[in-house]
Design a protein that fits this description.
78 residues; mainly alpha; 2 helices; rod-shaped
Length: 78
């Protein structure tokens, strides 16, 4: 290799390594700060899911109720 090119290559490799290290540190901090928001959203979605499951259970109990079925049968005869 050319003797004049070797220092340029070494500087480029060192600069690339330092830049990559800074980028990794930045992304790590960014992901740490954003993970709290995701956890809050996850908790909210779980609570909403539980609420909706409760509502579905109530609707299922209404639909499977004997009085509801009797009303449906009477209405279908008319």
């Amino acid at each position: 290799m050319d003797d004049g090119l070797m220092p340029v290559l070494i500087v480029a490799i060192v600069f690339s390594f330092v830049s990559f290290s800074v980028y990794i540190k930045y992304r790590t901090e960014q992901l740490k700060s954003g993970s709290g928001q995701l956890q809050d959203e996850n908790v909210a979605l779980k609570a909403k899911t539980l609420e909706l499951e409760g509502r579905i259970q109530v609707l299922e109990s209404i639909v499977t109720n004997k009085n509801f079925r009797l009303d449906e049968e009477i209405n279908s005869l008319a």
